[in-house]
Amino acid sequence: MPCRREKSGAGQMELTPREEEILKEIDRDRIPVHVAMIMDGNGRWARERGLPRSAGHRQGVETVREVVRFSNYLGIKVLTLFAFSTENWRRPLQEIDFLMSLPEQYLQSELPELVRNNVRVKLLGDPERLPEKVRRAIAKGLEATSSNSGMLLNFALNYGARMEIVRAVRAMLRDLQQGKLKETDISEELFAGYLYTAGLPDPDLLIRTGGEFRISNFLLWQLAYSELWFTSVYWPDFGRIHLLQAIRDFQQRERRFGRISPEQR
Ligand code: IPE
Ligand code: IPE
Ligand code: MG
Fold first, then answer.
1. How far is the CA of 146 from the centre of ligand 1 (A)?
2. Residues with Cβ < 8 Å from 136, sequence gap 6 or more?
3. CATH code at position 226
4. Do the Cβ atoms of 140 and 172 come closer than 8 Å?
5. Structural domain boundaries enclosing 86
6. What per-residue confidence (pLDDT) applies to 10?
7. Choice among 42, 72, 88, 249 that is catalytic
8. What single DSSP character describes residue 251?
């Protein structure tokens, strides 16, 4: 259908009849602008198959490929993926090492397609503690896609919302001390500008896979009015169908932002 091609960020895509069916229930003009995802359940996915946790993480990268492609196709403007939290350093060294090999692997194989599809890559989080190879891979991804104007793909790596907020407070204090700011300048908007997500709209939709009902220190400030969507599906099993279901459910919700429904006025 030519009209679908026009609205998609990344050309044509073969959909299954079931996916087509859900897509028909979705208003393509009201796709959430910013979708954030807590990619959880890799370890349990592997354990249920008698595999090492690393097998779950490897399969999880396949889901990332698919989700990035499909998000772009649907016309999502900002996709933020929680890949490694500031608390994930508490895991066994061997697992951390494996996780730290994945950004490079992913970007090495996907970068040409990301460039072609006009996707821009960004890092949310503190690069300091990340191994050199991760920093290099991300820097390369950033550079190669910096002039792209399509979907923004944020990788939250060594990201923790509390750390992000403390970092913002410090930076703000510095500006205050240097006279670049005065106390009365401090507002919600100004503060948001000190976060990693400066300039981006807040997530409209947060998806968490893996069956846990918590935020795990992700985007605490930015999620204030996001619609939350949880699924017990493990991240390696998360697919286009689930993203379509999440968007369809999102579109059925009434976002009131503290107001009352128009029909109650
Ligand atoms: C998500 O899967 C990946 C990261 C947090 C890095 P997990 O590794 O947390 O998988 P579970 O939750 O143990 O199943
Ligand atoms: C959240 O998952 C972090 C990422 C998906 C990167 P965790 O598996 O670390 O969360 P908890 O520990 O179950 O809250
Ligand atoms: Mg987990």
1. 30
2. 104
3. 3.40.1180.10
4. no
5. 40-235
6. 57
7. 88
8. H
42 in catalytic set: no
Length of the chain: 265
Residue 12: predicted pLDDT? 81
Compute the distance between CA of residue 182 and CA of residue 175 in angstroms, rounded to an integer: 9
How many domains are there within the chain? Answer: 1
Which residues are CB-neighbours of 241 under 8 A, at least 6 positions away?
A: 16, 18, 19, 22
User: At residue 201, what is the residue type?
Assistant: P
Record the tokens describing residue 202, joined without a space: 């807040």
pTM: 0.96
Gap between the Cα atoms of 252 and 258, Å rounded: 18
Q: At what angle do helices 17-24 and 240-252 cross, to 10 degrees?
A: 20
Closest CA to 66 of 18, 30, 13: 13
Nearest ligand 2 atom, CA 39: 5
Residues in the chain predicted with pLDDT less than 50, given as ranges, are: 1-8
Q: Which two tokens stand for residue 183?
A: 């106390």
